[in-house]
Structure formats: C-alpha cells, structure tokens
Amino acid sequence: MAHSAQTQAHEIGLRSSLKEDSNGHTKLTSPISSFQHPSQDPAGTETRDSTTMEALPGRLTEAARLSDPSASRDSAGAVDKSCSTVQGSEDAEGPQVNGTSQGQRTKQDDAAALASSKRTTACPTGYVPTPGPKEQPNTNMNDVAKVDHVEEAQRHDQTHFMAVPLDTIPPTADIPEYDMHLLNLARHADPFRMLGCHRAFEIYTTDPAASSKGPAVKSSDPYVPLDYELLVRGDAEESPRVVYDTYSFGMTVPQYNLELFQSGSCWHVDNLMGSHIITVDGVVGVRFAVWAPNCICVSVVGDWNGWDGRAHPMRKRVEFGCWDLFIPGIGPGEKYGYRIHARNGTDFIKIDPYAQEFEVPPKTASIISACDDAFKNAEARFQWHDQEWMERRKKLGETDQLHREPMAIYERVLARSLRLAEEVFTTSAYPILRISGSCPCVGYRELADRLVPHLKNMNFTHVEFLPLAHHPFEGSWGYQVTGLYAPYSRLGTPDDFKYLVDTLHQANIGVFIDFVPAHFCKDSWGLVYYDGEPCYEYADPREGEHKLWGTAVFNYRRNEVRSFLLGAAYHWLRRYHIDGLRIDAVSSMLYKNHQKEDGDWLPNEHGGDANLQAISLLQELNWVVHKEFPGVFTMAEESTSWKGVTDKKEGLGFDAKWDLGWMNDTLSYLCCPVENRRKCHNKLTFRGLYMAHERWILPLSHDEVVSGKGSLLDKCGYLGTPFEDRIRTLKTLYGFQIGMPGRPLIFMGGEIGQGREWKDNRSVDWHEGDEELRKKLCIWVSDLLGLYRTQPALHAGDDETWNFKWTDCDNNNDCIVAFLRSYPVGVPHGGEWQLLLNSDDWKYAGGMCGMGNGSYIHTTQGGRLGWPYCLWLDVPANGCLYLKSPQPPDAEKQRVIQEARRSGESMAKGGETHANANSR
Questions:
Q1: CA-CA distance, 60 to 180, in Å (whole number)?
Q2: Torsion angle defined by CA atoms of residues 489, 493, 498 and 500, in that order, rounded to the nearest 10 degrees
Q3: Is the backbone peptide bond immediately before 824 cis, with ω within 30 degrees of 0?
Q4: What is the mean pLDDT of residues 293-307?
Q5: Phi and psi for 204 in degrees, rounded to 5?
Q6: Calpha distance 462→405 (Å, rounded)
Q7: Are residues 51 and 163 in the same domain?
Q8: How many helices (H) and strands (E) does the chain have?
Q9: Boundary of a domain, candidates 218, 249, 280
Q10: In which element (H, E) is residue 178 found?
C-alpha cells in the first residue's frame, strides 16, 4: 500500500514501473531500502507465490482536534497489523474491475492503457546526482559534499494502469482511523509508517481534493517497495502531470553523518542540515533536514503546498532527534519553514536554522537557495577570482608570518545606514562613498565598487564588517542573530556577498566579519524554544537568558549546538573566503556571572564562575579554524583580565585580543581639561604594564561612538574646546594608536572626523569631508597608515617584547610621552634622523611647528635619560612626530646582529622613534 501527501490536486492516478527477474517473474521496484519481502512472513516462512495488487485513491476527511496528539511509532517500512495484506488463495480470481477480472487481465492490456515510463528525469544543470539509499558512497565523514555519481541500472519497465471506482476500497486495506486523524491534523509522529509503499498493496493519497476515479496496478509475485509515479490533474488542467511521491524515497541523510553531528564535531554540518537541491535516482528535488529532538512531529511547509502541514510530514531519525525528507519537484527560490507540533499540544512554524537565504525583514520565511554550492559541479558554482590572495594567505599561515604583516582595519556597517544618494557630489573628497539616509539601499555588489577605492586611498589593509549573519532587527546592528548560515538578505543574495569578498581580495584587501556565538534573539519564530522546549538554549533561565541584552544564551553542553556553532564558523570561512573572525562578547561566554546579579546565575560543577563548556568550544573553534584554514585570523572582544586569550597551547588560542583597556584609558585622558591632564598621565602609560601578555588589536570602534557617548571628535576635548584644537587632538590620537604595538582599527566616519555620533538608521555624514580641515585629516590618516604599512618597525614586531621601549613616560608636567619602535632590538644612533611625519605639517592643515615632513635632524652629544645621543625636537601641542634613525655603523651593526641572533631574532634595518605631545 502506498499513500501520498498531495494536497493541491483534483484527480490523482498512479503509474508504476515493473521489471522481470531471471525467472520471468514481474517485480515492482522502488528506491526505499527498508522493506520486507511480501512473499514471506516475519519469521521467514513462505506464504504465497503471487498476489493481486490494486492501487486505489483515497481521501482524508476533516477531523476534530484530538485531545491526545501522541501516536505510537514504528520503524521505517514496518507493517501496521491493521493495514493487512490483501490476500486470497492461489486459485481465486481477483476482484472485478470494470467488468474484467484481474486474473484475466494481461500485461498487454495494461500496457496499452499508458506508455511505458520510468524515472529518468535529468539532473538539473550544475547539480551532482545523489546516490540512492542502497548505495552510499565511501566518503569522508566530514565531507558530505563529495558525492560519487551512481549510474542508474538499466531497467526493462512496463506500466500497469487501470481505473477503479472510489467505493471499491476494501476496508481491510484502509489507514486506521486514528492515524488518519493525526495525518489530517499534521500531527503524526511516524508518517512513513502510513504513507508510501506498504504490504497492503494499495495506493492511497492524503489529497483533500481528490475525487472520482483513480488507477490500479496488478502483478504476480510483486516485490515492494514500489517504484511508481503519481498522475495529478488539477481543476484547470486538461491532462494529468507526473508527480513523484515523496514517500517513495528512502533516507537521504547518512547515519554516519548524523552520528558525527551528534558528537559535536560536525564541521560540514551546512551540507548535512538545512535545504539542498539534490537528485535521487535521477529525480530532482530538495532534501530537508532539521534538528528538533523534543517535538511530536515536523512538517515541511512552503509556497508549493500552501503552507499545509498535512502535505509533507517528515521522517524522524529517533536516535538523533533529527527529521529529514526529500521532496521531488521543487527547486530554488521557494519559501519554506517547519511546522512543528510540540509535546504540549501547540503548533507553530519555525525558520530553518541552517537556511542559507531568508526573506527580507520583517518577513521571516527561509528560502531554498540557488547559491548553495554544496552539490553543484565546478562549472555551476560561483566563480572566484581571488586565487592569488588565497594562496598568499595560506602561505603566510603555514610559515607563521601572518603576525608580522601590517593589519590596518576599517570597521564598517553593512545595513540600512548604507544608502545611495540621489544627487552627485563633485567637490567631495571621497564622492564615491557619498550616501544618504533616504535613498535606496546599497547592496553587496554596488558597495564593492564604491568601497574598494576608498580603502585603497586610505591605505587600509583589511575591512571588518559588523555581523552579517541574518538578523531580524536592524537596530541590533546584527548582534541579535537568527540565521547563522545566511548573509543578511536586505543587501543581496549569497552570491552577491561572494562578489563583494572576491572584489576586495582582488584589490589585496582582507575581509573580517563579526561572529556571534554568545547569544541569539528571542523572536518566537526563531531559535528560542525551537521545538516547543529549550533546544538551542539552556533550560534553566539562570543559564539560558541574558537579561541585560534580552537575548538567549546558547547551550554549550549540547553537542548538537556545538556542531551548529562550529559549522557556522566553518561555513563562512569555506563558502565565503572570509579571512578572519572577530568573536563577539567573549567575556559573557567565559563567565557564567557576566553582568548578572547574585542569584541570577549558576556556578559550574567545581563551584566557580567559569563556563567550562564555552571555554572548550572557543578552544576547539580556534583549533579547527587554524587547522583547516591556515592564514585566517581570529580576534576576541574580551574586556576582562582573563589570562591566555591568545595563548595557543594552554589558552583560548586566538590570534589577537581587543585592547579595550587602552581605548577607554586613552579616550578618558583626552576628555580631561588640559589643566587636569597631568593628573591623568598614567592613563597613557598604564598599558606598558600588561602589553607583553597578549597580542592586541587597538580599536577605536563603533562601541565608543553610539548610545550617547558622542563622536571621536567630541572626545578630543571638553566643553568649549575649539574645533581646530579637536582636529589636532584627533590627529594625535591616530598617531598614538598607530605608534603603539598592536593592529589599529578605525570605525567608519572616523577618518573624516564625523561631528555627531553614529546612528544605525543614518548614513555617515560624508558631506563633512568637503570641509578643509577634515580633508586634511583624511590625508593625515592616509599618510599615517601608509607609513605603518611600509615601515616594518611599526608592525613586524607588534607581539615581541623587544619591539617597544619608553624613552619618556613620566613627563606629566609637559604631557609628553615618547617611545622607541624598532625592528628588531636597536638603540638610538648618532647622525641624521629623518622626520617622516609631523601632524602639524602644512599638508595636514597644521600650524607648522618645527620642521616639516622629510626633514633631517642631527643628534647632539650628551645623552638623555640613559641614551647615548640626544635629539632636540619642537613637539607641537596636541601633535605627533615620527622619526627614522640612520643606519648604524658597521661595527655597531655587527654587535646588534650578534645580540639578535643570541635572542633568536633576525636583524632588520634601522629604527624609529615616536613622540606624542599634549602640552599646554
């Protein structure tokens, strides 16, 4: 008996494929693998040689809601005793059909009713056929995408087809009433036990609109499952169309991959779960898979079935808590979701957590993505052109040279705040970036052509995007995520985002993204209470809720959640060629009591406040990233004194940590009135006490220019400070940032000194870049970053203790700090020192205090502060100087080389000194 869940048809028929065995017997064939030979009873005893098989249409009537929605489950393909086989003696004639007994009807009569057919649907262009359940390829457990092509065996098929009135349905072959009610309510726990092919040898549908007559097939000695096709004719259709029954297909998700998913280490989970266009036995369709361990049943709903949960209930893989289903005949662009019936009796529709595309907010449906490259051949996938960049990145990672490369990061928002202006500005310093808050949104592809020239002009080496994973609320800036596997849909498709990354790589610009594994939003249609019970989050709200942020916390104890998070990071790096991940809110992951009151958190098993499972997840994440993607850079936004964040052996294993202490201390110092700065001088030098403990990013990020904190320009002074002085102080701030060990990060708008703080619903005020002082500020930032990129002393030894020495750190009366940056260890030398940059140069709208860029300054005899030589400098107020030392004499050079070799470091050229001043 085979039942199908077609819901939008007027009339449904069936045609089947049969083939003869070596004994001349005709057999019904099907791709379902778990079946019992109908000629044997469960004990293996021979019962009969031939059986008459009929295919009859049926309808499910509307039923009242049942008080007890639970249903007994049986193994896939098992036979329900209430659905008994239609059997008779060997001598009995079959039931009469249209006046002709089935025993008298011949194969030739049946074949004349309909032309022979079989499953030969061509694989869609670009997609690799998926093997049937009987022949699973011997693939790597972590590489689901590598599917071998399985040739379909040639079959000699004949079609058997006849019509049978509706009122001839034998009662012994009907679906039990209780199961019919559950199917009709989309609450059946085991639909494959009822639908599809079974030993009753009758063909049913659950189509509410089916009417009049249907087909039947007959064969002696039939084997099940049946390889059949449905003929569906709608009210407006003159002839029926061929439809493949969803429940005639076997399992398409291999068990060994589900075992890996359940173990918590399935990095390729994006190929396993979610929706994927594949082919099974030559039939094109979409495979769906989702993890929902606590619910009664799950159905795939979408536009193609009217969002009717009765149409496509899924198979539950009980031991894994997963549900899967292959639906033939649908393709990319279809919107869908999962209709879930929970144990508490409620029904609701949820998104696909593994979806690779979503509708544009506020709509929430998942979309079958045409950009999914997992099962496409090489020609049909997105064509990357960044091979040179990727090879260079890999080489830097394998040779451990990545940390010696310059890394000037531009933090950027890709959301509603990026809009193309209607007017054309020809006088702007950077008109290509001109955008306003009232015009159409700039997408990924449009932004690629606008962003690259600006980054190149400003000498940035990398761009970091705020979270791009799909999120419903733009006011969260992407930090309250729902779809960790999909780029933000408002700006374009996944392939559009790939184009943006590819364009940046071709311009030799790296791409970082913010990745958020710490928490997720609590929208009812999202991940929270996914199957009616805590699933992705901790069950206890003291662990599973972050009240201050109004978000849910991922359950790091569950291996399936760990696979989900690890797989998401892996997905962005593999599918989108991302060069680095900045992990958000690491402190909230490390500490169970982070920003929580007493009584609102639970200690770990040792009574401490460390989240041991989150720690192990971060360690595994960094290990996987560095193992699988050499040259990818990981960063932690961690604001506490946790030790070993960048320790790869016993710590968390990050490549760098955001130095939020330096940012807060420096900005706090700049906000002090001039007369009080001498009392705050230690804020500029305190970093020297901990600087050698980690590797650093020096951020001037979005967090400091929002929520009433004001802009960077506001922080460069106090009430009543003239605008010109603020610009000078901002130039000094950037000079101080570039000079200190660490990778500089500047948020968008900071390069022009935007006057107001950033608003997520407005664009940067690029028109301010037309002002003369701000133009000069842009030039200063560009020259400063250019110096940083070209001088190894400023970046190659950022993580080494010998790369930095204070020469004057206690001059609080004059508000001056001075330090040496050299590569490798060096000392000041006599001779001519070159002034590389002076923030007070005319080029940067300065007052030209002292000498200009490119000038030379001679040392004098008589050292200062223990150094053998002395430079007399005119340091401008609120100014910054960069100087390069002369080449040391040969004898001294040889001594430095020997010292460098003894310390295990290599010799480099020259040295530099750097001075900052905030004098009165």
A1: 7
A2: -70
A3: yes
A4: 95
A5: -120, 160
A6: 11
A7: yes
A8: 17, 42
A9: 249
A10: helix 177-184
Determine which helix (DSSP H) or strand (DSSP E) holds 729, and give its type and residue range: helix 723-739
Contact 609, 603 (CB under 8 A): yes
Cβ contacts of residue 728 below 8 Å, gap of 6+?
839, 840, 846, 876, 877, 878, 879
Choosing from 80, 190, 347, 637, which is the catalytic residue?
637
Q: CA Rg, the chain, in Å?
A: 35
Neighbour count for residue 255 (Cβ, 10 Å): 12
Q: What is the pLDDT of residues 813-850, one digit of tens each?
A: 878 877 676 433 223 566 778 888 888 787 787 765 66
Encode pLDDT of 746-803 as tens digits. 999 999 999 888 887 777 888 888 889 999 999 999 999 999 999 888 998 888 877 7
Q: Hey, how many other C-beta atoms are within 10 angstroms of the C-beta on 868?
A: 13
**DSSP E strands, 845-910:** 856-858, 860-864, 867-870, 879-884
Between β-strands 633-636 and 510-515, what pairing exists: parallel, antiparallel or unpaired?
A: unpaired
Considering the candidates 110, 324, 584, 841, report the single residue annotated as catalytic: 584
Number of domains observed in the structure of the chain = 4
Q: Could you confirm whether 80 is annotated as catalytic?
A: no
Q: Do 132 and 242 share a structural domain?
A: no
Q: Which residues contact 120 (CB under 8 A, 6 or more apart)?
A: 152, 282
Count other C-beta atoms under 10 Å from residue 306's C-beta: 12
Residue type, 864: R
Gap between the Cα atoms of 369 and 361, Å rounded:
17
261 and 140 within one domain: yes
Q: Of all residues in the chain, what percent carry a pLDDT higher than 70?
A: 68
- 205 and 223 co-located in one domain: yes
Check which CATH number belongs to the domain holding 892 and give it.
2.60.40.1180
Residue 738 lies in a domain: no
Specify the CATH number for the domain of residue 498.
3.20.20.80
**Domain housing 815:** 800-917
Whether residue 520 lies inside any domain: the answer is yes
Per-residue pLDDT of 635-665, as tens digits, reads 999 989 899 999 988 899 999 999 999 999 9
Of 606, 623, 651, the residue at which a domain comes to its end is: 651
In 3-state terms, what secondary structure has residue 675?
A: helix
Q: Are residues 108 and 200 in the same domain?
A: yes
Query: Would residue 399 count as lying in a domain?
Result: no
Do residues 370 and 482 share a domain? no
Phi, psi at residue 914, to the nearest 5°?
-140, 135
The pLDDT value given to residue 653: 95
In degrees, rounded to 5, the angle at the alpha carbon of residue 790 between the alpha carbons of residues 786 and 792 is: 130
- Count CB-CB contacts under 10 A for residue 254: 17
Residue 798 carries which DSSP code? T
For residue 6, the model assigns a pLDDT of 53
Q: What CA–CA distance (Å, rounded) separates 679 from 815?
A: 10
Is 637 a residue of the active site? Answer: yes
CB-count burial class (<10 Å; 0-12, 13-18, 19+) for 119: buried
CA distances from 284 to 191, 281, 534, 896 (A): 22, 9, 35, 69
Q: Are 543 and 495 in contact (CB under 8 A)?
A: no
Task: Mark out the alpha helices in 51-101 (DSSP H runs).
Answer: none
Other Cβ atoms within 10 Å of 15 Cβ, number? 23
Cα-flanking dihedrals φ and ψ of residue 891, to 5°? -65, -40
Q: Report the distance separating Cα 916 and Cα 735, nearest Å.
A: 8
